[in-house]
Design goal:
The structure holds two protein chains of two kinds. Helices cover 71% and strands 3% of the residues of chain A. Chain B has two domains: 145 residues; 344 residues, no CATH class. Classes of the chains: A mainly alpha, B mainly alpha. At the A-B interface, β1, α5, α6 and α25 of A face α14, α16, α19, α20 and α21 of B. Chain A: InterPro entries: NADHpl_OxRdtase_5_subgr, ND/Mrp_TM, NU5C-like, Proton_antipo_N.
């Protein structure tokens, strides 16, 4: 094994070792050692990723096996790595954000009894996510896919005594399983059609089967379309796309660091990554791409609306994540895979920043999350304030900040797409810009500007985390002032704020219009010319920025910010007025379009009812009652009849025997 | 044979002899001695099976470690033992579990200790006999004898409703066995007086007879698996059985039925197997979906895991009757994995039951606060039951689903629903038992697992993870035998 191969192994294994040490021996080695060792090992992983990045940039990609997992007939199922430009980018993002979150956790979880367990989980997550992105085959992809789901389950339910947390984690797992159901069937179809689960072999043979009909009885779909849609159902679960989005807002029950790491920056983008990785498949099916685009558009716009009325600081950011994931999905649908990955990267930085900054606010507010009980915080926590502002500006797509380049490119790509549904998608992403700006700055103004609402005796009325069981809910005492959080908390904010500002300007040219992804993303420029046309119109990042200042999205964003300013700072009684006037819309939004109620009623309690009925009628009444105990009763009945013949008198028996002999003789003579 | 030792005979008779020795220690005054003797016997019984794996020739599907001598010459009955790449795994699995159940019953069983432990040792030997027999009469003797210790274990050390459960268990399985005996006698006559199972594999049989034989075998084996609709004895038997009984029932007894399908039904009557495969697939799918749903509303933990077992065994029977390598190997892997996972889950439930004396889910809540280490194990095994990649539970399910897609996408569609149902019933139970605030003073008083329990669950955790991360050693050994079996089954015997 060469040095580089050892380095590849080191990247995922280092966090795994950290997870094992902190998880199994956390109580022996203590808190400080646990966080030191996990942080050190994630840092090792990050540094190794940097080296690998340089190596890949020098032209050394890798596709090889680590060990053989299983033989399936003639198919070898293996654990292996594919190291190319896409992988190494994901590795950098994952290890960097993970490192920031690890450091931040020292401050955020300082008082928690499950300190070592938490570090163990986030290191385990880092391992799983790295295995997912570094995989060179579908099986390992599924491994990582489910493993990140498991850690997400464990982390959402980290505070396992809270009813809301353990409700949320079960829900997250089950909704994800619905996605995995499709994903696994997609993998099954791939194995059946291609006879292999290796990416390279599948992609090499994809054109052979491009026009075949799917081997699904009763369905006359194209096989590639069927595969892509099934795979994308998996992505809908993991990346929380409509209608499998319902788990993500509830996942905010988990501690804030993991909301940043798992439910914003990395795990939820696994679906986006997967589709980009599968670009050679998706490129062959316009139907699948259309489906992807429309799903993303629905998520981008309609989940954005819900962010407007949330009062829990984390939930606003969560809905914004849903909406941004929708943007990435739209980009995938428009064949702009590189743009989706670009937005994935910028979003990872600024959204992790926003979540961690929100967490910083939560610490300062002594675990109050209701933004109506905040206000004016900029005086007390300047670093959090500035970094949060940077994050918000990046999110709404302010020129020169990273979000501008990725989001504008998405809008541009959709505008140039000709697929069915692209018109709706274009409208959705444009309208989404306004909505994003509005809810982002509503949040920003309510938290950092305006009157101070904290320190009042309030009987919680916020969000879902308002129960008295919650031992983390203290709130500031009347008169108490919040103050800036310790350096372990604000340092990651600063370190994340830097890429949130500059990375878009720096990398847009090589990533989108250069050859960066030439080895890992395939676009059929004949059929889907968006990217080629964009490249034609692109004249450097500065020109793009200047052009952006005069374009529609910029003004929409500005309008959103202005409206938020008017509504929440200038004349704060407007929202209440609107709310009363359009109460039905408010109710609709407040109930999240009734998805949760429907799922609870139809799927959760429906399944329980069906289950109870099947059990009572099928197993108890029919099989046990009628057949099993029935036959037992029948035997009992016959024996009770026969018992009457058993009189015990010899002459009865003798008489019966004579009759019997007589009958036998009669029959015998009859048939002679 | 290693150093001239007849390994298979040892794996059968060593536990039985030790069982008799344990019985000889007599009443409960000698319980400590009985435990030690039983432990030695169980460990020796496991050790003698290890060479079976190490010295196994993976390149051939012929029977290995063969022992052949006359038994009842008048009827041409032989003492004929041997294992191929399929049965060898189950001999080892069975012997592996015997020390575990001895440890599990170490402190818990205080009445009639010697008899309890002897029951498990003797049963272990008899089950090995079932897996290793190549003579139909020998097989039948072991097959029926195996019922007796289990019947006694449920009937004597079981719960309040133990007599009903024991009799239901006995009658259900005995009913099927009698039909199998008739089929075996028919084969004896047709083959011109042979009880050799391998001879039956070769001899031609007309279609009508094949179908009748298949049905007779089906009655015997389907009850044991158990397949829908002859499954209702299992939840009752589990609920009433003591922990060790449940473990062996789930881990080993169910596998005997499935083993019967591949040693008897499929190779002896291949044409009928193909002809009736549609029915088998339908019953298997019903087991997966219907039983998966039924498991959801169970209020008793053991019942829930019992239903989950039936649902998971649906994968096994389905994997057999789609006649491809993915399905067959997946089914075998699933059988082994299910042994580990469900055995571990029953042990976990036993751990809770020993402390709380209830298996009602509603009596629990917040166990994690009081028993963190136990909860970690419990969640791990639950994830194994859910079929999470990285645990053994995933491997078999994955292989069978992949195999089924090849046959009919919609079968796989129904089958994959276990991804959702399995997660729903398992994790909902975990949520209500392990997570949440401490529910009542009884839970408040719980203490975490002892060294003995840690040892037990730790060993099983290693096997569950080990098999999930590196299943190749398990499939490697069965590969040749499975391929030859599939080739054999594909050939008509009419």
């Amino acid at each position: 094994m060469s040095t580089m191969e050892n380095l590849y192994l080191l990247v995922p294994l280092a966090p795994l070792v950290g997870a094992i040490i902190a998880g199994l021996f956390g109580n022996i080695v203590g808190r400080t050692f646990s966080h030191c060792i996990t942080i050190l090992l994630v840092a090792v992983s990050f540094v190794a990723s940097v080296f690998i990045y340089q190596d890949v940039m020098a032209g050394n990609t890798f596709n090889g096996t680590v060990y053989q997992w299983l033989n399936l007939g003639d198919t070898r199922l293996e654990v292996g790595f594919l190291i190319d430009h896409l992988t190494v980018l994901m590795m950098l993002v994952v290890t960097f954000v993970s490192l920031m979150v690890h450091i931040y956790t020292i401050g955020y979880m300082a008082d928690d009894a499950g300190y070592q367990r938490f570090f163990s989980y986030i290191s385990l997550f880092t391992f799983s996510m790295l295995m997912l992105v570094m995989s060179n085959n579908f099986l390992q992809l599924f491994f990582g896919w489910e493993a990140v789901g498991l850690v997400s389950y464990l982390l959402i339910g980290f505070w396992y005594t809270r009813p809301t947390a353990i409700y949320a984690n079960l829900k997250a797992f089950l909704v994800n399983r619905v996605g995995d159901f499709g994903f696994l069937l997609g993998i099954g179809l791939i194995l059946m059609v291609f006879g292999t689960l290796d990416y390279a072999e599948v992609f090499a043979n994809v054109s052979k089967y491009a026009s075949d009909v799917a081997p699904i009885p009763g369905v006359s779909w194209n096989v590639i379309t069927a595969i892509c849609i099934l795979l994308f159902i998996g992505a809908m679960g993991k990346s929380a796309q409509f209608p499998l989005h319902v788990w993500l807002p509830d996942s905010m029950e988990g501690p804030t660091p993991i909301s940043a790491l798992i439910h914003a920056a990395t795990m939820v983008t696994a679906g986006i990554f997967m589709v980009a990785r599968m670009s050679p498949l998706f490129e062959l099916s316009d139907t699948a791409l259309s489906f992807v685009m429309v799903t993303g558009a629905i998520t981008a716009l309609f989940m954005g609306f819900l962010g407007i009325i949330q009062n829990d600081i984390k939930r606003v950011v969560a809905y914004s994540t849903l909406s941004q994931l929708g943007y990435m999905t739209v980009a995938l649908g428009a064949s702009a895979y590189s743009v989706a990955i670009f937005h994935l990267m910028t979003h990872a930085f600024f959204k992790a920043l926003l979540f961690l900054a929100a967490g910083s606010v939560i610490i300062a507010m002594h675990h109050v999350q209701d933004i109506r009980h905040m206000g004016g915080l900029r005086k007390y926590m300047p670093i959090t304030w500035i970094t949060f502002l940077i994050g918000s500006l990046a999110l709404i797509g302010t020129p020169f900040l990273s979000g501008f380049y990725s989001k504008d490119s998405i809008i541009e790509a959709v505008a140039l797409s000709h697929l069915p549904g692209s018109g709706f998608a274009y409208f959705a992403v444009l309208a989404g810009v306004f909505v994003t700006a509005f809810y982002s700055f509503r949040l920003y103004f309510l938290v950092f500007h305006g009157k101070e609402h904290f320190g009042q005796a309030h009987h919680d009325s916020h969000g879902a985390t308002n129960d008295s069981h919650d031992d983390h809910h203290h709130g500031l005492a009347p008169g108490q002032k919040p103050h800036e959080t310790p350096w372990v908390v604000w340092l990651p904010l600063v370190l994340l704020a830097i890429p949130s500002m500059i990375i878009g300007y720096l990398v847009i040219e090589p990533m989108l219009f250069g050859n960066y992804f030439s080895d890992s993303i395939f676009v059929d420029h004949e059929l889907h010319p968006s990217m080629a046309e964009m490249k034609h119109e692109f004249h450097g990042p500065l020109a793009m920025t200047l052009h952006g200042l005069t374009s529609l999205p910029f003004w929409l964003a500005l309008a959103g910010v202005a409206m938020a300013w008017v509504f929440y700072l200038k004349t704060p009684n407007i929202p209440e007025m609107i709310r009363q006037k359009f109460s039905w819309i408010y109710t609709l939004f407040d109930n999240k379009y009734y998805f949760d109620s429907f799922n609870d009623w139809f799927f959760a309690s429906g399944a329980r009812k069906v289950s109870g009925m099947l059990w009572k009628f099928g197993d108890i009444k029919l099989i046990d009652g009628l057949v099993v105990n029935g036959s037992a009763r029948m035997v009992g009945f016959f024996s009770s009849v026969l018992r009457h013949i058993q009189t015990g008198y010899i002459y009865h028996y003798a008489f019966a025997m004579i009759i019997g002999v007589f009958l036998l003789l009669t029959i015998h003579t009859w048939f002679e | 044979m290693i150093f001239g030792f007849p390994l298979l005979s040892l794996s059968i008779w060593l536990p039985i002899i030790f069982g008799l020795l344990v019985l000889a220690t007599g009443n409960d005054r000698n319980a400590p001695l009985a435990r030690v003797v039983a432990m030695i016997g169980a460990i020796l019984g496991f050790l003698v099976t290890i060479p079976l794996y190490l010295d196994f020739d993976k390149m051939t599907s012929a029977m290995q470690f063969v022992e052949l001598s006359e038994w009842i010459p008048h009827f041409n009955v032989h003492y004929h033992l041997g294992v191929d790449g399929i049965s060898v795994l189950f001999v080892i699995l069975n012997s592996f579990f015997t020390p575990l159940v001895v440890i599990a019953g170490w402190k818990i069983i205080e009445k009639r200790v010697a008899q309890y432990l002897a029951g498990f040792l003797i049963m272990s030997g008899l089950v090995n006999g079932v897996f290793a027999s190549l003579d139909a009469v020998l097989f039948y003797v072991f097959w029926e004898a195996m019922l007796i210790p289990m019947f006694i274990i449920i009937g004597v050390w079981g719960g309040p409703n133990r007599v009903y459960a024991a009799i239901k268990f006995f009658l259900y399985t005995f009913f099927g066995s009698v039909l199998m005996l008739i089929a075996l006698l028919y084969l004896y006559v047709q083959s011109g007086g042979s009880f050799s199972i391998l001879e039956y594999h070769r001899m031609p049989i007309p279609m009508t007879a094949q179908i009748l034989i298949f049905v007779a075998f089906f009655m015997a084996f389907a009850v044991k698996v158990p397949m829908f609709p002859v499954h209702t004895w299992l939840p009752d038997a589990h609920v009433e059985a003591p922990t060790g009984g449940s473990v062996i029932l789930a881990a080993i007894m169910l596998k005997v039925g499935a083993y019967g399908f591949i040693r008897f039904s499929m190779p002896i009557v291949p044409d009928a197997s193909h002809y009736l495969a549609g029915w088998m697939i339908a019953l298997s799918l019903i087991a997966v979906v219907y039983i998966g749903l039924v498991a959801l509303t169970q209020t008793d933990m053991k019942k829930l895991v019992a239903y989950s077992s039936i649902s998971h065994m649906g994968f096994v029977t389905l994997g057999f009757f789609i006649f491809n390598a993915y399905g067959m190997e997946g089914a075998l892997v699933q059988m082994i994995s299910h042994g580990f996972v469900s055995g571990a889950l029953f042990l976990c439930i036993g751990v809770l039951y020993d402390r709380m004396h209830t298996r009602n889910i509603a009596d629990y809540g917040g166990v994690a606060s009081k028993m963190p280490m136990f909860s970690a194990f419990f969640v791990l095994f639950a994830m194994g039951n859910v079929g999470l990649p990285g645990t053994s539970g995933f491997v078999g399910e994955f292989m069978v689903i992949m195999g089924t897609v090849n046959v009919n996408f919609w079968y796989a569609f129904a089958l994959a629903s276990i991804l959702i149902f399995g997660a729903a019933y398992t994790l909902w139970m975990v949520k209500r038992v392990v997570f949440g605030a401490v529910a009542n003073p009884h839970v408040e008083a719980l203490t975490d697992i002892t060294f003995r329990e840690k040892l037990l669950l730790g060993i099983l955790a290693l096997t569950v993870l080990g098999m999930g991360l590196y299943p190749l050693p398990f499939t490697e050994i069965m590969h040749t035998s499975v391929n030859d079996l599939l080739v054999h089954v594909a050939r008509s015997k009419l």
